[in-house]
């Protein structure tokens, strides 16, 4: 059986996001906020996220120097429509991108201050900012730390410089080492690294070396996920033309299993399909998504989940000002039920009908119970005492297919 998240670790996670205690209500408060910064110094060849290189910024008339004011305006207008009346401050805040540290550190602090003055921030809030190592020299870590940022998510991807060059990354591993030293010196005690698996030309030994290097640098958290070939990216086009060879499905699975074993050897506990932590330093913000909590989304292309509605912001500044949404989907109670089962399994914790009943005040629907039993018969779920299910070792490889079937 795969090494699981220990019960005491999940119980500590529930301190901030009490899955069992918080009943499903359409009018429940949002205690998390995501802020999207859609700017990069350079667009990587595999990236399909909403981010604009300097040339694209000029062409679309979307400029970093104006962006903080645009975000603050959106924060204030959203607060009028969806005020936080719970008396609780924001418990998690996540600045993602793009590369948020392309913006001046002072602007990032202004945005954070606007969130605090508008919604209030809880004293023990987890406040994360993504950064890429190439912005090290323009980032004022001391200013960010004093403003309240307390977690860094660093886009390392690999430690081999030739792989980084192949991906179009601008940094080298020596930049990661320098960034880690400076962040520690300025008081950051929670660092997370991204690791991409199944890269062109990547071997098991390279993955093991990357994980060992992250462990030596003391990273508290690692997000490890397979490369996804996204249409219309330069990598996709090169692959279609036969210029780049990617590992086949069997080799990819071997590389993923190599990473899982190596992470365990270095004391990283898998608490979600693609996320690993030492000493209980899991991502509280991501847990809010997986536990079905509401969250604010600010910035171009940002997603939000408020009052039962999942919405995605537009990609251009003029549309954001008028508060148009590019997508708006209402998640009804039945949909929320299906999602909750999927998310609970993804968290690699035992899922039981009693959990569901506490959440939704009803029995697990027969269709969902039948789906769980089917995947148990296929060996993708393990049955535990008291009617609980958990992903099996085999099920980890098919988690996405299980989720699609349940939803």
Q: What does this protein look like?
A:
Helices cover 42% and strands 20% of the residues. It is built from 17 helices and 15 strands. It has helices at 7-16, 54-60, 64-81, 105-119, 141-147, 161-167, 173-185, 204-216, 234-240, 249-265, 284-290, 317-321, 333-346, 353-360, 366-377, 393-396, 399-406, and strands spanning 30-37, 90-97, 121-131, 151-157, 191-197, 221-226, 269-272, 275-277, 294-298, 303-306, 309-312, 327-330, 351-352, 381-384, 388-391. It has a nine-stranded mixed sheet with strand order 7-8-6-5-4-3-2-1-9, sandwiched between helices. Helix 3 runs parallel beside helix 4 (105-119), helix 4 packs parallel to helix 5 and helix 8 runs parallel beside helix 10. It starts with 6 loop residues before the first helix and ends with a helix. 38% of the residues are buried.
Instruction: Provide mean pLDDT, rounded.
Output: 89
Runs in which pLDDT lies below 50 for 5 or more consecutive residues are 1-21
Beta fraction: 15-25%
Largest sheet: 9 strands, mixed
Straight-line N-to-C gap = 26 Å
Taken from the alpha-carbon principal axes, the silhouette is globular
Radius of gyration: 21 Å
Order the strands across the largest sheet as they lie in space: 7-8-6-5-4-3-2-1-9
Which structural class do you get from the secondary structure elements? alpha/beta
How many alpha or pi helices? 17
Helix content: 40-55%
Task: Give the number of DSSP strands.
Answer: 15
């Amino acid at each position: 059986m795969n090494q699981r998240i220990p019960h005491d670790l999940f119980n500590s996670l529930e301190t901030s996001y009490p899955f069992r205690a918080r009943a499903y209500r359409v009018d429940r408060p949002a205690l998390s906020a995501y802020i999207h910064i859609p700017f990069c110094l350079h667009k990587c060849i595999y990236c399909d996220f909403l981010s604009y290189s300097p040339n694209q910024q000029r062409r679309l008339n979307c400029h970093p120097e104006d962006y903080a004011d645009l975000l603050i305006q959106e924060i204030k207008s959203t607060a009028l429509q969806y005020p936080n009346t719970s008396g609780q401050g924001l418990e998690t805040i996540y600045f993602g991108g793009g590369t948020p540290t392309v913006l001046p550190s002072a602007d990032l602090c202004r945005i954070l201050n606007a969130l605090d003055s508008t919604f209030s921030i809880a004293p023990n809030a987890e406040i994360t900012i993504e950064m890429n190592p190439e912005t090290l020299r323009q980032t004022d870590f001391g200013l960010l730390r004093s403003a309240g940022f307390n977690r860094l998510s660093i886009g390392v991807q690999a430690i081999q410089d030739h792989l980084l060059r192949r991906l179009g990354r601008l940094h080298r591993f020596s930049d990661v080492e320098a960034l880690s030293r400076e962040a520690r010196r300025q008081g950051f005690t929670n660092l997370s690294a991204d690791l991409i698996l199944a890269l062109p030309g990547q071997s098991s030994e390279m993955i093991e070396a990357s994980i060992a290097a992250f462990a030596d640098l003391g990273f508290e958290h690692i997000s490890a996920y397979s490369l996804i070939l996204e249409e219309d990216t330069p990598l996709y086009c090169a692959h279609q033309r036969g210029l780049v060879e990617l590992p086949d499905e069997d080799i990819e699975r071997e590389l993923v299993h190599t990473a899982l074993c190596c992470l365990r050897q270095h004391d990283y506990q898998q608490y979600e399909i693609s996320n690993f932590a030492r000493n209980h330093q899991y991502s509280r913000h991501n847990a809010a998504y997986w536990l079905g909590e509401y969250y604010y989304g600010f910035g171009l292309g940002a997603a939000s989940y408020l009052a039962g509605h999942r919405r995605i912001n537009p990609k251009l500044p003029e549309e954001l000002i008028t508060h148009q949404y590019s997508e708006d989907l209402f998640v009804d109670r039945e949909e929320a039920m299906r999602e909750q089962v999927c998310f609970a399994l993804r968290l690699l914790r035992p899922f039981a009908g009693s959990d569901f009943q506490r959440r939704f005040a009803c029995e697990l629907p027969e269709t969902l119970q039948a789906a769980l039993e089917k995947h148990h018969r296929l060996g993708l779920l393990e049955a535990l005492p008291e009617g609980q299910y958990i992903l099996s070792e085999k099920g980890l490889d098919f988690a996405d297919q299980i989720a699609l079937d349940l939803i």
